[in-house]
Amino acid sequence: MTGVEQLEARIGSLESCIVAFSGGVDSSLVAALAARALGARAVAVTAISPALATGELDGARHVAVTIGIRHETITTAELERAGYRANDRDRCYHCKSELYDRLSELAGRRGVAAVLSGANADDAGDWRPGLAAAAEHRVIHPLLEAGIGKEEVRRLARELGVPSAEKPASPCLASRIPYGTPVDPAVLARIDRAELALKELGHRVLRVRHYGARARVELDAPELAALTSEARASIVAAVRETGYSEVEVADEPFRSGSLNAAFTRRLVVAG
Predict the structure, then answer these.
(1) What is the DSSP string of the chain?
(2) pLDDT tens digit string along 147-179?
(3) Distance CA 5, CA 2 (A)
(4) Cβ distance 70 to 42 under 8 Å?
(5) C-alpha distances in Å from residue 118, one per residue of 19, 30, 68, 148, 268
(6) With pLDDT > 70 as the criterion, what percentage of the chain qualifies?
C-alpha cells in the first residue's frame, strides 16, 4: 500500500470523524484523506477566536471546497482560561484543551466516532503541550501515528492537489507573544494588523514579535536577503502605523518554533 492508501485505510476504519481544521498543510492533508475515506461522514471544523489571523478562515474555506469536505466553524473561548491568558510555557495546553473540549462536545452530540488532528511526526520532537491536551481527549493523529513528517506531508499534499501544500506555517497569533507576557485581545489585534500590513506590502513568510511598545519583524531568509533599505523603511513605517512606537527588523531570518527551541534546549540540559 502507498502512504496515501495506508492513511485512508486508517481514517476509513473510524466510520466518521471531525477534523480539527486550520487550513494549514497538515490539517488540510488529513481533511483531504478523510474526505476520500469517509465522504459525507467527515467534516472539517475551524475554530474562530481573537487568536486567528485575518485571512486564515477564508483560506480554510477555500481548501475545504477544493478538497471536497464539508466545512463548519465553531467559536472557542481560550481567552476565558486563566492558564491561556497567563501565557506560560503551557499556553498551548490550555488553548488545545478549549479546542478539543468544543470538538469533543460536537462529536458527542452528533455521534461522530473520532476527532482527528494534523499533528505530524516532527511535532513529537518539539515542545508541544497541546499534544497532552489531545491525549486527554483521545484525539487521533493519523500523520503522527504513521511517522510522517513535514516534508512528506507536503509531498502527499501536492500529490492529492491540496491547495495549501506550500502554505507557510501560521500558528495562532499568541505565538508572537513571549512566554510570561499576558495574552489579551488588544495585543492579538495589534499583532494581526501589523502582520496584515506587511502582507499587503508583499511579504509572505513573516512574524511580528510583540514586546510591549516594541515590535520585532522577522522575515524568512530569501526575503531578508533581498530586502533593500527602502523596503526596510516601508516595513518600519507600516508597523508603526498599527500602534508600535519602536520597530526592529531582525537581521537573522525567521525560524519557526524559535521561542520553543530555546526552552527545549534548557529542558535537555536540565535533564
Answers:
(1) --HHHHHHHHHHTTSSEEEE--SSHHHHHHHHHHHHHHGGGEEEEEEESTTSPTTHHHHHHHHHHHHT-EEEEEE--GGGSHHHHHT-TTHHHHHHHHHHHHHHHHHHHHT--EEE----GGGGGS--THHHHHHHTT-B-HHHHTT--HHHHHHHHHHTT-TTTTPPP---GGGGSPTTSPP-HHHHHHHHHHHHHHHHTT--SEEEEEETTEEEEEE-HHHHHT--HHHHHHHHHHHHTTT-SEEEE-SSPP-TTHHHHHHHHHHHHH-
(2) 999 999 999 999 999 999 999 988 999 999 999
(3) 5
(4) yes
(5) 8, 6, 17, 11, 26
(6) 94
Return the ∠ at Cα 165 (arms to 24 and 223), rounded to 5°. 85
Query: What pLDDT is attached to residue 267?
Result: 40
| Selection from 261, 258, 259, 250 nearest residue 221 by Cα | 250
Task: Compute the mean pLDDT over every residue in the chain, rounded to the nearest whole number.
Answer: 93
**β-pair type (206-211, 70-75):** unpaired
Residue-wise pLDDT for 67-123, tens only, equals: 999 999 999 999 999 999 999 999 999 999 999 999 999 999 999 999 999 999 999
Q: Give the amino acid at 74.
A: I
What's at 45, amino acid-wise?
V
Domain spanning 3-159, CATH architecture: 3-Layer(aba) Sandwich (3.40)
Just give the CATH number of 184-259.
3.30.70.2210
- How is the chain split into domains, by residue range? 3-159, 184-259
Q: Are the beta carbons of 41 and 70 closer than 8 angstroms? A: no
**Which set of grid coordinates corresponds to residue 179?**
512566554
